[in-house]
Specification:
Length: 187
């Protein structure tokens, strides 16, 4: 059964108080919260009471205590979380990178631009691995591909016709009263 509560020596308590002050000065509120939780439990509050006082769950506070016991202050520091192991091997990622670089037409799609659902389908079909569109985006980012947005201009736009419309018809539309423009809407 895990140990309940937390007993700190004077030097440990002083170290936590100093760290709290420096975290407060840096506006590192997460670290301040962790230290407050540890000190509350050390001062005799139950884990449930201490967790309620600082607004976290009991299990969260217990995790902080466990990490502090195991690794000291470094156990309280928020760090980059590695996440789970990738379901694609490095070889599969390299192959996917080559396929993406070659373009969607070479992969059997009828469009010239990759979109996330297409890549999700490609990964599922080739490797039998299901990813969400957002996770697929993160994988592509790690493979050094960036998100590209289509231009707003239609490819078959007639620039002369657009300019003429802006010069002649748009001002007339703007000058006419709203009732005339919306004559089909009865009052």
């Amino acid at each position: 059964m895990p140990r309940v509560g937390l007993r700190l020596g004077r030097s440990q308590e002083a170290e936590l108080k100093d760290l709290y002050q420096s975290a407060k000065a840096r506006k590192d509120l997460d670290m301040c919260l962790r230290i407050q939780g540890l000190l509350l439990v050390h001062r005799g509050n139950t884990e449930i009471m201490a967790a309620d006082m600082i607004g976290v769950g009991r299990r969260t506070l217990q995790d902080w205590i466990r990490r502090y016991r195991q690794r000291g202050i470094s156990g309280l520091v928020k760090g980059p979380y590695r996440g789970g192991r990738s379901r694609l091997t490095e070889e599969q990622k390299e192959e996917l990178s080559r396929i993406i670089a070659a373009g969607p037409e070479k992969a059997g799609f009828d469009t010239g631009v990759w979109i996330a659902p297409m890549v999700v389908k490609l990964v599922k079909d080739l490797y039998g691995v299901s990813y969400s569109a957002s996770q697929t985006g993160r994988i592509l980012h790690a493979l050094r591909f960036s998100l590209q947005y289509p231009t707003r201009k239609p490819s078959k736009a007639d620039e002369k016709a657009e300019e003429q419309w802006r010069a002649e018809e748009l001002p007339a539309i703007k000058k006419s009263p709203a009732r005339e423009r919306c004559a089909a809407v009865p009052r």
